[in-house]
Design a protein that fits this description.
about 300 residues; mainly beta; 1 helix
Length: about 300
């Protein structure tokens, strides 16, 4: 017996000859020699990327894309990533999307965004021997256009860069920013391994109501000053990670049964309108981020 991944080199063509005296499972001999060939799988190509996309671009499966400098998808550009592709980030690097990010991933072939040091996906890409990523190895994926579908992805070890909301600092890994209409859907995703002070999914408070979660268990972290009327929807947990302000002339509506949690020392200032749609049987809950009784 042999293991092609161990006994042969990548992209090697191997010829195997079976003697005619070899018996099949049914007990019959082959009768004559049988020859077949196969080619071992090749090592993935590591492609360094960075800067603003000059045109709409496809990142292909079978490659590992290493973000060695911050990548920007401009408002008129599309970055498409094929199913099963691994994207790794060097220390402190980020991906900012003002245009569109299209993931062709599936439930069985997810797109992975992770640290350059993470050998669990794509192997030892930085050739430093066995290593694992650490929370805060890289910065964030930021969406300045909230009309996106982010699905079937694994995102891990981000959250290194601080952002001043005007009311405090946050450290997002997946970040929904900007303003305007459009739904930001996070579906069938795993967001994991951020620093203790970081946020797996963070939304500027003005677009926090745009976030829809499907088969993804993560709180929607918020902070900053409301720049448009917003609704916080039932079925989700909102985590106030930096002071949140509802200014005069703005309305924050919170649906019945919604849970709002506050990180240590954070709060909410309402100079405009806070509209609670709670009922006697479906109260809105405001509590500590450490309170497991709710959410």
């Amino acid at each position: 017996l042999f293991d092609p991944s161990v006994d042969f080199a990548p992209n090697e063509t191997v010829t195997v000859t079976l003697s005619g005296d070899v018996e099949t499972l049914a007990g019959a001999k082959l009768g004559s020699d049988y020859v077949f060939t196969f080619q071992t799988a090749g090592s993935p190509t590591i492609i360094p990327v960075g800067g603003t996309l000059p045109a709409s671009t496809v990142w292909h499966s079978g490659n590992i894309y290493c973000v060695t400098n911050d990548v920007t998808v401009a408002a008129n550009r599309i970055l498409t990533i094929e199913a099963g592709t691994v994207v790794k980030f060097s220390s402190g690097r980020s991906l900012s999307v003002s245009g569109s990010l299209i993931l062709n991933s599936t439930s069985s072939q997810k797109v992975v965004f992770t640290s350059w040091r993470d050998d669990d996906y794509g192997g030892d890409s930085n050739a430093d021997g066995a290593s694992a990523g650490s929370p805060g190895d890289w910065a964030f994926i930021r969406f300045d256009n909230p009309a996106q579908v982010f699905h079937d992805a694994i995102v891990r070890y981000g959250g290194s860069s601080s952002f001043n909301t005007g009311n405090g600092f946050v450290y997002p890994m997946v970040w929904v920013s900007g303003s305007g209409a459009g739904t930001f859907t996070v579906s069938n995703c795993t967001l994991e391994f951020v620093p203790s002070y970081g946020q797996r999914l963070y939304a500027d408070v003005g677009v926090s109501g745009n976030v829809v979660l499907a088969n993804t268990t993560v709180p929607v972290a918020v902070g900053g000053t409301l720049n448009q009327d917003t609704v916080w929807h039932s079925g989700k947990v909102y985590l106030v990670s930096a002071f949140t302000t509802v200014p005069s002339g703005r309305t924050l509506t919170i649906e019945a049964g919604t849970v709002v949690k506050f990180s240590g020392g954070q709060g909410m200032i309402v100079a405009g309108t806070l509209n609670l749609q709670s009922t006697s049987s479906q109260k809105v809950v405001f509590t500590s981020w450490r309170d497991d009784d709710y959410g």
